[in-house]
Amino acid sequence: MPFPKIATIPAPKAQNRPTEISQIGRTRHDDYAWLKDENWREVMSDPAKLDPDIRSYLEAENVYCAQIMSGTADLQTALFEEIKGRIKDDDSSVPSLDGDFAYSH
Q1: Do residues 96 and 102 touch, judged by C-beta distance below 8 A?
Q2: Which among 4, 19, 68, 97 has the fewest CB atoms less than 10 Å away?
Q3: Interstrand relation of 101-103 and 96-98 (parallel, antiparallel or unpaired)
Q4: Is the Cβ–Cβ distance between 47 and 62 less than 8 Å?
Q5: For 8-39, how does the pLDDT look when each residue is reduced to its tens digit (9 = 90+)?
Q6: Alpha-carbon distance 58 to 14, whole Å?
Q7: If you write DSSP's letter for every residue of 39-95 in order, what string do you get?
Q8: H/E stretch holding 102
Q9: Do 38 and 19 form a contact (C-beta atoms < 8 A)?
Q10: Alpha carbon distance 7, 33 (integer Å)
């Protein structure tokens, strides 16, 4: 199978916003800390609350990914079908914990 032609579009670049984070007596620098919304717990239950700057960057990443990966759509489908074929149809629950052990039903 030949490699699909990869689009030559520029990847989005996240802005550097220098941030100092002090925890347990140490300070570290993170230029991309702004990508973790301070109210991330609220965002998990209501995505509309996501900071507009973060949303804009993530949407640009999604567009870039869709364009770059567009030539692999058939391969993605084939891989997904193969993975599904290896999972039992009744795998609908997670293992339950009992002490140090996890049991599947």
Answers
A1: yes
A2: 97
A3: antiparallel
A4: no
A5: 789 999 999 999 999 999 999 999 999 999 99
A6: 9
A7: THHHHHH-GGGS-HHHHHHHHHHHHHHHHHHGGGHHHHHHHHHHHHHTS-TT--SPP
A8: strand 101-103
A9: no
A10: 29
What's the token pair of residue 99? Answer: 């002490």
Instruction: Look up residue 27 and give its two tokens.
Output: 């300070």
Residue 49 near residue 39, CB atoms below 8 Å: yes
User: Residue 88 corresponds to which tokens in the numbers above?
Assistant: 């039992």
For tokens 């996890």, what's the residue?
Answer: 102
* Residue whose pair of structure tokens reads 């925890």 in the numeric block: 23
Place of tokens 């949303």: 55
Tokens of 45: 């239950």
Amino acid at 105: H
How many residues are listed for the chain in this entry?
A: 105
